[in-house]
Amino acid sequence: MLKVLILGSAAGGGSPQWNCNSSVSRAVREGKSGTSPRTQSSIAVTSNDEEWILFNASPDLGSQILKNHQMHPKKDLRHSPISGVVLTNGDVDHVAGLLTLRERQNLSVYAHNRVHSVLKDNSIFNVLNPDYVERRELRMNEKFELKDKEGKGLGLEIEAFEVPGKIALWLEDESKGDDFGSEDGDTIGLKICSKNDNEFFYYIPACAKMTKKLADKIRDSEVVLFDGTLWQNDEMASSKVGEKTGQRMGHMNNSGDDGSIEAFKKLNVKRKIFIHINTTNPILLEDSRERKIVEQNGWEVSYDGMEIKI
Ligand code: MLT
Ligand code: MN
Question: Which of 84, 134, 153, 241: CA 20 to 30 A from 47?
Answer without folding.
Answer: 134
